[in-house]
Amino acid sequence: AKVAGRSQTSFFNPKMTRDLVRRREIEDELRSAIMRDELSIYFQPIIHLDTGKIHTFEALVRWFHPEKGELRPDEFIPVAEETGVIVTLGNWITAQAAKACAQWPEHVSVAVNLSPMQIRAPGAALGIINALREANLDPHRLELEVTESLFVDDNHATAVFMEELSSRGVRFALDDFGTGYSSLGYINSFPFSKIKVDRSFVSGPNVGKKTDAIIRAVAKLGSQLDMDIVAEGIETIDQVQSVREAGCTLGQGYYFSRAVPDYLAAMLLTQESDD
Ligand code: C2E
Ligand code: CA
Ligand code: CA
Ligand code: CA
């Protein structure tokens, strides 16, 4: 009886109820949010640590909800994944990102995050090829960011998808490196050209001698395998210096810029070409 009583109180916990209601609303409204034009793609620069110039822009989705305000992807991407909406949403994001990139100078690429479910959907590779074709974007300028969660099962479908696209020139980055299983087997078996070291190794309370040594080791691996190593979450000049010294070639973080709307991304590039 005691256990039942406890679970009842937690069932009627007002915060839980509010969270559930909010989740349901997000679920219901997400499908139509694209049509209502509430979603936008923002772009965060990834910088050459040697030259300070922009190498890539990472596409990060934003939802400007008429009542709830700005929703972060961490709140609605998981809902999109659970409901399957991620497939439609993901195709839209890739198409928007490719269109934006086609307006930039040729040496600048765009990076798009892919959820495992998108990759396993039928015709996944074709959706990306079509987005490239429609935007008239060279496949070499598209990079797809995936996390290790992709490899927990069904590696065959993943391998087929990655081979199909990388044979056309699309590149792949291993995102959030260091937070999951970080098996070097993935780097060996799949065609990655970039590793993104998670920001928990770069800034925040856990950064120190140990994380420094880990970044150094990953950077060394990268240079020997001819892969770029990106340090994520750089917030201070000290962090720029330490990841550079550790051997990272590229950096991303609030120190350089937050994610910005496409017209500001274009302005950052114009400023660079004027230098
Ligand atoms: P992520 O792919 O690891 O993206 C980096 C996140 O770190 C972004 O958060 C970015 O704004 C944030 N960030 C960048 N620099 C700094 C920094 O210096 N300090 C701190 N504290 N944070 C920094 P955001 O945009 O909220 O996205 C969160 C996550 O949502 C992304 O993590 C990604 O997993 C997912 N996501 C975002 N856009 C998409 C998308 O279009 N498709 C999919 N499937 N997932 C997305
Ligand atoms: Ca990412
Ligand atoms: Ca990341
Ligand atoms: Ca992340």
Automatic annotation (TrEMBL):
Domain EAL: 23-273
Domain of life: Bacteria
Protein name: EAL domain-containing protein
Naturally occurring in which organism (per UniProt): Altererythrobacter rubellus
Classification of source organism: Bacteria, Pseudomonadati, Pseudomonadota, Alphaproteobacteria, Sphingomonadales
Range of the intact protein held here: 370 to 644 of 652
